[in-house]
Design a protein that fits this description.
It is a peripheral membrane protein. It is found in: Membrane. Belongs to the GTP-binding SRP family. Keywords: GTP-binding, Membrane, Nucleotide-binding, Receptor. This protein has 15 helices and ten strands. Strand 8, helix 14 and strand 9 form a beta-alpha-beta unit. The protein has an eight-stranded mixed β-sheet, sandwiched between helices. Helix 3 crosses helix 15 and helix 13 packs parallel to helix 14.
């Protein structure tokens, strides 16, 4: 396993590669999977589905990770407790205000409430439990079209679409959103399923970013691309992709990028150039361009997503720090307005806490049955 170089000012120190014994163990673990890959060329394309299916039943992580948002929605439960069919219009008005408070956003909150009103008029809501179920249905109806491959008219889906030899994932986002940690957790998941992963350090202006990435490479059994402090990010990413293409020993290249404000025009243009540099080496890549959003920013993430999507067309979102915020409802607004699927959500600190997104589990965790609360 090759090591890259991390440069500090004018002196360069090597990025520490995983210990030989760990690498040997990783190779021996991957051998059976690689044999399957040789017999089944479609293995890589199925990895996104495999990862999602394995996590589908892990409702408890969703429930625990959304506790703060659920607390913010406590007023909704209070409204349901004193639910009365006779004065449902007053209840709907208060419900709309409660959803806005939880960062669902005015437009999305109104869409949800209008849907509930139609169900009430149709006579399908009579009790508090009916109302809770209808509320979850409305939220799922907003999330699923963008997160379900069978219903998405855009062809985008919450499953990772790993296509190409190698497949390239470009990870973008603002400063402090958690990109590097998310990349490490994603590398861990992919490596665990048998993929050979290369981490490309495109954040060339912060040496600590490469060090952090190298540590995740060590922990996940991934390879680490060469880092050049102050180098042109597009060139670094293109070189990593070219190495993976020529050496044919990598299935997935995950490209890190420097955090940047979505309002900084020059930096956003640089990001567009990074994407072009990758495509120059591998014409059909990146197969996924994923925006990492900090869940604690609430509805501010909507403007971020718009600007990034205009600069480098996004294929999906990753929502981080959901366990530390009461503003998780904003993800519903982002999906509703931009029709971008959520690929993963971060509900904790461990690699396993980067969970494939599931609209049903998310809605159920926000508005659980009364006995679960």
């Amino acid at each position: 396993m090759q090591a890259g170089n991390v440069c500090h000012s004018r002196r360069c120190a090597p990025v520490v590669a995983p210990h030989h014994s760990a690498a040997s163990s990783s190779r021996s673990r991957l051998q059976p999977v690689r044999a399957q890959a040789e017999a089944s060329p479609g293995l890589l394309a199925k990895l996104g589905r495999v990862i999602k299916e394995k996590a589908a039943g892990d409702y408890e992580r969703f429930f625990k990770g959304t506790s703060k948002t659920r607390e913010r929605l406590g007023l909704v439960e209070e409204l349901l407790t004193f639910w009365s069919l006779e004065d449902y219009e007053d209840t709907l008005e208060e419900l709309e205000e409660a959803l806005i408070t939880a960062d669902f956003g005015p437009k999305t909150a109104l869409t949800i409430v209008d849907g509930l009103r139609e169900e009430l008029k149709a006579g399908s809501i009579k009790t508090a439990d009916d109302m809770r179920s209808a509320l979850k249905r409305q939220i799922i109806s907003l999330l699923e079209p963008a997160n379900n491959s069978s219903s998405s008219s855009s062809g985008k889906t919450s499953e990772l679409q790993l296509q190409g030899e190698p497949a390239v994932l470009l990870i973008v986002g603002v400063n402090g959103a958690g990109k590097t940690t998310t990349i490490g957790k994603l590398a861990h998941r992919l490596s665990k399923e048998g993929a050979r992963v290369l981490l490309a350090p495109g954040d060339t202006f912060r040496a600590a970013a490469a060090e952090q990435l190298a540590e995740w490479a060590r922990r996940s059994g991934a390879k680490m691309g060469t880092f050049k402090e102050g180098g042109r990010p597009g060139g670094v990413l293109a070189a990593a992709c070219n190495d993976a293409k020529q050496q044919k020993d990598v299935d997935v290249v995950i490209c890190d990028t420097a955090g940047r404000l979505h309002t900084a025009y020059a930096l956003m243009e640089e990001l567009a150039n990074c994407r072009k540099s990758i495509a120059n080496v591998l014409p059909k890549q990146p197969c996924e361009t994923l925006l990492v959003l900090d869940g604690t920013t609430g509805l501010n993430m909507l403007n971020q997503a718009r600007e990034f999507n205009d600069t480098v067309p996004l294929s999906g979102l990753i929502l981080t720090k959901l366990d530390g915020t009461a503003r998780g409802g904003a993800v519903v607004s982002v999906v509703d307005q931009l029709k971008l699927p959520v690929k993963f959500i971060g509900v904790g600190e461990t690699p396993e806490d980067l969970q494939p997104f599931d609209a049903v589990n998310f809605a159920e965790a926000l508005f659980p049955a009364a006995k679960q609360q």
